[in-house]
Structure formats: C-alpha cells, structure tokens
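Annotated sample (chain length 262).
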Amino acid sequence: MDVAAASGKLNEHRRTSQVGLGLSGLVVLLGLWWLATRGGDEFSLGRRFTPEAAFASLFEILGSSDLLRHTLVSLKRVLIGLGLAVSIGVPIGVAVGSSFTIASATGIAFQFLRMISPLSWMPIAVMAFGIGDRPIYFLLAFAAVWPILLNTAAGVRQLDPNWLELGHSMSASRSQLLRHIVLPGILGHVLTGVRLAIGVLWIVLVPCEMLGVSAGLGYAILDTRDRLAYSELIAMVLLIGFLGFALDTAARLASRRWVEAA
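Output written by the structure step:
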C-alpha cells in the first residue's frame, strides 16, 4: 500500500512538473513574440501583429456569431473527412496487415501516394468535384487516410497469433474473428492513427477552406486579410492553434484511456 501511495505521489509530481514546464515554454514563446513586435513605429508592419492587439481582438470576436459559424463549419468538415478516412483506412489496413501478398502488392503504391502533398491535388479536386465542400472532403480524407491505414496494418501484424488460433479452434467464422478478436486487438493502433490523422487534417484544413467556400476558419483568415484586419488575423491564427491543440488532447486522452483499460 505504501509503495502504491509513493508511486501515485511520484506520478502526480511528474505531471505537475510537466505542466509547469509546458507553461514555462508557452511564456517564453509569448515573450519572444512580444520582443519580435517591438521594433519600428506604430505604423510599421511588425507593430500590427503585437500580442496585445491580437488578444484584444480575440476576446472581441469570441462572442460573435460569425466566429461560431466558421468554427462549427470547420469542425464538421474535419469530422466528415476523418470519418471517410476511417471508413476507408481501417478495412484496407486490416487487409494489408492480414495478407503478405496484399501488403507486397500495395506497399510501393501506397508509399508513393502518401508522399504526395494533399494540397497538390487541389486543382484536380476542384475540377472533379466543383466548388464547395466536396473537394474539401476529398482532400481531407486523402490526407488523413494514411496514418490510419498504416497504423491499422501495424496493429494487425502485432496481434497475438494465439488469439487467432483460439478463435479457429472454436470454429469461429471470419466475421466473428474480425469482430471479437481483430478489431478489439487493433483499436489502440487505430486510435493512434486517428490522433495522427487529426493533426494532419487540421494542418490541411485551412488552405483547403480557401477553395471558394463562404464559411470556415480558412475563409475567415482570407476575410481578415482582405479587410487588412491584422490583429483579427493573428487572433484567428491563435484560435486555430487552440482548437487544434484541444482536438489533439482529446484524441490523446481517448487513446490513453483505451490502453489503460486494455
């Protein structure tokens, strides 16, 4: 009992230290930002991007209905793109991880496609799907599918063969093996792939939302630029960073809880 209590205190101390170090790094970053915008007169470009102006604009726009609309539209696109990537990446990842033949036949092609920047597909996506949400969904799904697919395949390869042999010995069908052994056994890997995919999605989202749409965080960035509202532009950048951090944290916590439960 004493050992468990000591271990708990040690873990709590480590978490506290980690949070303290993280906040210290954030303070240093804000200090560097503040120093970088000190030079020049009040009309210089650098003085238009000061932390004071950015945070003032951020607090000003947080309660606006337009910001809520842009945020909800972007989150909807992320969820749909992620859903498409999961629905495509998990089945293909299971097939690749289960078969040496399929893995050999698709390995080079998948690595080739994975190394193509999703943004390079933007003109083709617009020509194929037109202006609107559909090309954005395609680009987001294309960007997010690879970490999910590859992590799923890795999870299938790392499954304990004894589990599968046990299922075969009990005359389990292929669908039963998939539902009761394979999918529960690889869920941790899938969640890791989803977390990585969210990071990729969030990076690709903003330029994708510059494809002629009328709502979304990427559109809001263009709008502030066109209005020369520099402090609002930086405020939107801060908001995008905060939302991305929140999504990554949620995915990390979900993955950690699954691993601890397993």
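Annotation: The mean pLDDT is 80.
Annotation: The chain has two domains: 1-36, 50-261.
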